[in-house]
Write a structure and sequence with these properties.
Helix content: over 70%
Strand content: under 5%
Order of helices and strands: HHH
Largest sheet: none
Shape: elongated
Structural class: mainly alpha
Distance between the termini: 100 Å
Length: 141
């Protein structure tokens, strides 16, 4: 056997090549990454509607880039190739077409309930602090 060539044939070694099962699993994980990114975007939609859209967009892009990086480092052996990119985009589009119309109204409903709770809590806190301020002002007189 000559030096510089792998034992299993034309430039590939058995240790370097991924098995077909591992490759398919990696591609399924890439599709799941796309679905997860779509879910994350839908979770941020109500917050974007309340204001600060640029901040939430930046946060989503940062999380998406971090997720893609961690995916590439963990399951794709440091490579985020075109097949992984295409399948993650496919998962994202699949989520937006199939699951988003079902889940977005649910997220909006909970956002409205949380918004009402925040308004009630804010008004209660404001009334409490005004009462406390009046009480302490009477004590000082």
């Amino acid at each position: 056997m000559r030096r510089g060539r792998a034992a299993s044939g034309r430039g590939f070694s058995a240790e370097m090549a991924l098995s077909i099962r591992a490759e398919v699993f990696s591609l399924l994980q890439a599709a799941a990454l796309g679905v997860g990114l779509g879910l994350g975007y839908d979770l941020l939609r109500p917050a974007r509607r309340h204001g600060g859209g640029a901040f939430w967009d930046f946060l989503f892009c940062l999380c998406a880039a971090l997720s893609a990086f961690l995916f590439a480092m963990h399951s794709a052996n440091g490579v985020f190739g075109s097949s992984e990119l295409l399948l993650s985009l496919f998962g994202l589009l699949l989520y937006f077409e199939l699951l988003s119309p079902i889940l977005l109204p649910i997220f909006s409903f909970f956002d409205q309930k949380v918004g009402v709770f925040c308004i009630i809590t804010q008004n209660s806190a404001k009334n409490f602090f005004l009462s406390a301020k009046k009480l302490f002002q009477k004590r000082q007189e």
